[in-house]
Design a protein that fits this description.
By secondary structure, this protein is of the alpha/beta class. The chain has twelve helices and 13 strands. The chain has a seven-stranded mixed sheet, with helices on both faces. It has a three-stranded antiparallel sheet with strand order 7-6-11, with no helix packed on it. Strand 6 and strand 7 form a beta hairpin. The structure holds pyridoxal-5'-phosphate (PLP).
Amino acid sequence: MKAKPYLPYNKASITNAEIKAVVKVMESGWLTMGHRTIELEEKFSKYIGVKHSVAVNSCTAALQLALMAHGVGPGDEVLLPSLTFVATANVVVNVGAKPIFVDVNPDSLCIDVTDAERKITKKTKVIIPVHYGGQPADLDSLSSFSKKHKLIIIEDAAHAVDSEWRKKKIGNHGNTVCFSFYATKNLTTGEGGMLTTNDEKIANFVRRNRLHGISKDAWKRYQPGGKWQYDVLSVGLKCNLTDMQAAIGIEQLKKLPKFTKKRIELAKHYDKLLSKVEGVRIFPVAGPVINSRHLYVIEVIAMNRDKFIERMGDLGIGTSVHFIPIHSFTYYRENYKVSKNSLPVTDKTSANIVSLPLYPDMSKKDVARVAASIKEILSN
Ligand SMILES: *Cc1c(COP(=O)(O)O)cnc(C)c1O
């Protein structure tokens, strides 16, 4: 039998529209942050329904600037799930604060607010919920929890562009919110990120500190009419987006509703084909939400997860794991050790989860092939 073509875990949806837009920027002679970046920010704000969007070169940078903007530093503790990408914790360490790992809800795989409450101390300043796989964290509970304990919420929305909580887009619930435009994410600029807020002071801080802390509109200094003089008001980062990336983002944003529709459709097909398969568990969408379906995650119960991934590879299907829990990494074990049994759901679930291929350029036939392969592997 002829081997089927490899089905990758992820593939960006890039067409001539993105390519032409980048070429146009390159031909213009102005490559870095400029009018395209500002245009993307304005269009993103409009799409989300938020007052301010600030473009940066990664979600990691957005998260770090968010912590800096809220004055988080040495002596502060930050609550976050361990079941997330390591960036969510690294930024906390990078500003000198202490990450406190919180367990996740076994159904949503988002931060468990009850466990967060247990881990609060006098030093707790911030909670960073992650909208896991596009499933919004429970923003009602988080909001009352943060009010009760006077905490700041910074949302890690790396997976959640176009997701909704109570009929409003993620990014528009009154918090500081960080999006990723990394190559694998639902909207990509190759590398990139966006911070949204309704708070003008936070927005201005982030605008200044994405470019060294240089006073207002530093990006304009080489543009016609730009001023050569500038002042430095704080020690910032260097993490602006470029106009080449922004041009990709503007095209991707136009297609985002279509991307999301397709992702939801494919995920529903997975649900249908896998819901009755013994030996795997699926994670149905729950709550007053739209889940833009960044990931399609299953829990493999009937066999060893790592073997399962190997067997899928043998059948020509790419998979991934989201995530290796942060508290299990050497650096975090050595420096921020958690007590045994402090993260039971994370420990148990993270050993079994697998992310299946899911992206707009896939077909329902591809989904059926993945489902059939899973059944084949589990029946052997
Ligand atoms: C991808 C990701 C990030 C980091 O995004 P970058 O844009 O690559 O910095 C942060 N948090 C989560 C949950 C992610 O998946």
